[in-house]
Amino acid sequence: MDDVTQLLQRWRDGEQDALDRLLPLVYAELRALASRQLAGERADHTLQVTGLVNEAYLRLAGQRAAWADRRHFLLIAGTLMRRVLVDHARRQQASKRPPADARVSLDDVDPAALRVDSDLIALDGALDALSRIDERQARIVELRYFVGLDIETTARTMELSVSTVTREWRMARAWLQRRLDA
């Protein structure tokens, strides 16, 4: 058992200072995850890598999940980062809405910013719908798209064959594309 796994177990068992010792061991990996997730966002995104790491870490700190090991912890962190980005996009969209009684000119609207936020929210909704139909395909999409794992690592993580992950990834992408195009 490595240090991270031991600290995760101690934290789950209620040892609060285990969390303080855990962060330095996983911080670089959390930053790399956040960087990959923000790479797909628009250039003027208001959330930066450090902010995304901090927000995800705060959400992780509020949980006492039964993490199996470092890899499991990072997978959950990647999923939480996705949630942070979606929540951020929803807040941004809500703040751009004018009051109900206000008139707004179409010239005042930045369609590119609205589209990117809307795309992330739409993808999140489509991924939630996919998870209700096929949980495994949705998990593969999360690992590949949001966590940034390659096919082989995704297969090892999910304890599936490479050909199964390749097939499921292809099917999930096609389903999501149809859903997003509709």
UniProtKB/TrEMBL annotation:
Organism of derivation: Chiayiivirga flava
GO biological-process terms attached to the record: DNA-templated transcription initiation
Presence of keyword S-adenosyl-L-methionine: no
Residues covered by the RNA polymerase sigma-70 ECF-like HTH domain: 1-181
A Pfam entry, by short name: Sigma70_ECF
Protein name: RNA polymerase sigma factor (TIGR02999 family)
MF-aspect GO terms: sigma factor activity
Family, as annotated: Belongs to the sigma-70 factor family. ECF subfamily.
Keywords, in A-Z order: Sigma factor, Transcription, Transcription regulation
InterPro entries membership: HTH_Sigma70_ECF-like (IPR053812), RNA_pol_sigma-70-like (IPR039425), RNA_pol_sigma-70_dom (IPR014284), RNA_pol_sigma70_ECF-like (IPR011517), RNA_pol_sigma_r2 (IPR013325), RNA_pol_sigma_r3/r4-like (IPR013324), WH-like_DNA-bd_sf (IPR036388)
SUPFAM superfamilies, alphabetized: Sigma2 domain of RNA polymerase sigma factors (SSF88946), Sigma3 and sigma4 domains of RNA polymerase sigma factors (SSF88659)
Keyword Transcription regulation: yes
Superkingdom to which the source organism belongs: Bacteria
Coiled coil spans: none
